[in-house]
Design brief:
The protein is of the alpha+beta class. The protein has 6 helices and 16 strands. Among the domains are: 23-80; 193-271. The strands form 3 sheets. A 7-stranded antiparallel β-sheet has the order 8-7-6-12-11-10-9, with helices on both faces.
């Protein structure tokens, strides 16, 4: 079989076996759905209690319901239509006429995100090193919803027969003949629960604003409802129930968004510190954090930048080499002002820096 676009031999073909939209899209669906229910409650109050027209509220409710349905189905349709091809020299992601490619030999590192709902499935993300500063840009290729993502990554790197299918400890899934030289876990510190970087501070500020808005709604909304009741509005009337339900759903929505935003970034990062493991072998540098894994070939590492961390610990940033670039797209060789939630080629909270240096000083063993 030949890939007509490149004229290269096809090594592997696959598709998205699991349709699992990203968290942002699922959150958007929930927001619009709750918004639609709240508008229906207000429409009922307007029509049955106030005698006003419910058409404007029902129209907005219909639009919100349509957006909720679209935010749920559009990502599922897109992911279900993805097709993946690995040729002799390229990795290709295609959906209809849309096509993105990446040279197999320019991949700086790979990140695997295992699915919690579907064991043995997940995403494979390939990242290329790019220049920093004004020329910085994102060069990523994501294979979503594939079965046995570790096996897919092995196929991309030319080691398809050596990786088990399932998810487990990284030390149990090393290549045949690959030797473990060093392993450790990051040391936890109370400051890991504090926001670090512009992004996390912005998310904490947003969550605080949402909680404040919910508090104001509770402080002013429920007394207003009680005044309506004392003025003659029965507790079991459609008007009182509709207003109470609308306010409760709104407050719950604000609190839920605030919690999801903080827990999926700041809290998750701090809690996963105890579930993180760093490994250095004679071939690769590996990181495992919960359901995420990161793989860097030793030959890609050209320098390690050491930075101080709280508690007398050290953070080690790996500088990766790539075509016309010597930097990292996502974490940076130096402490950037912004921190992304994805796993990056960084050892955080390391105590045994000398052990890392000794392991990296050994000549890397390259796969054939």
């Amino acid at each position: 079989m030949r890939e007509s676009f490149y004229g290269e031999k096809v090594i592997w073909r696959g598709q998205a076996e699991v349709v699992e939209p990203p968290l942002l899209w699922r959150l958007t669906t929930g927001v619009f759905a709750v918004f639609a229910i709240v508008l229906v409650c207000f429409a009922a109050v307007s029509a049955l209690t106030l005698g006003a027209s419910a058409t404007p509220s029902l129209s907005l409710a219909f639009a919100a319901a349509a957006l909720a349905l679209a935010s749920r189905q559009v990502p599922r349709w897109w992911i279900a239509g993805l097709r993946y091809t690995v040729t002799e020299g390229h990795v290709i992601v295609q959906h209809g006429r849309f096509r993105r490619t990446m040279d197999r030999y320019t991949v700086s590192y790979a990140r695997i995100s295992w699915s919690q709902r579907y064991p043995g499935c997940g995403d494979v993300e390939l990242v290329r090193a790019v220049p920093m500063g004004a020329l910085s840009r994102r060069l990523r290729l994501r294979l979503r919803g594939v079965t046995a993502p570790a096996r897919v990554w092995s196929i991309v790197r030319g080691m398809d027969a050596l990786t088990p299918v399932g998810h487990g400890q990284l030390r149990e899934r090393l290549d045949a003949g690959e030797q473990l030289l060093w392993s450790a876990r990051p040391h936890a510190h109370w400051r890991s629960w504090l926001p670090s970087g512009r992004r996390e501070r912005s998310l904490v500020a947003l969550s605080t604003l949402l909680l404040g808005a919910g508090g104001v709604l509770v402080a002013k909304g429920w007394p207003a409802l009680w005044r309506l009741h004392t003025a003659g509005l029965p507790l079991h009337s459609v008007g009182f129930v509709g207003l109470a339900l609308g306010q409760t759903l709104t407050v719950g929505l604000l609190a839920a968004i605030a919690w999801i935003v903080v827990s999926s970034t700041l809290v998750a990062r701090a809690r996963l510190t105890h579930d993180t493991q760093y490994l250095i072998t004679d071939k690769r540098v590996l990181i495992q954090r919960g359901q995420e894994e990161l793989y860097v070939e030793r030959g890609r590492i050209v320098e390690v930048v050491e930075a101080p961390a709280p508690g007398g610990l050290r953070d080690l940033f790996f500088v990766l080499d790539g075509p016309r670039a010597r930097a990292l797209a996502t974490s940076g060789a130096f402490r950037e002002a912004d921190r992304e939630p994805e796993l990056a080629p960084v050892f955080e909270g390391v105590l045994d820096v000398e052990g890392v240096s000794r392991a990296l000083a050994c000549s890397p063993k390259h796969a054939g």
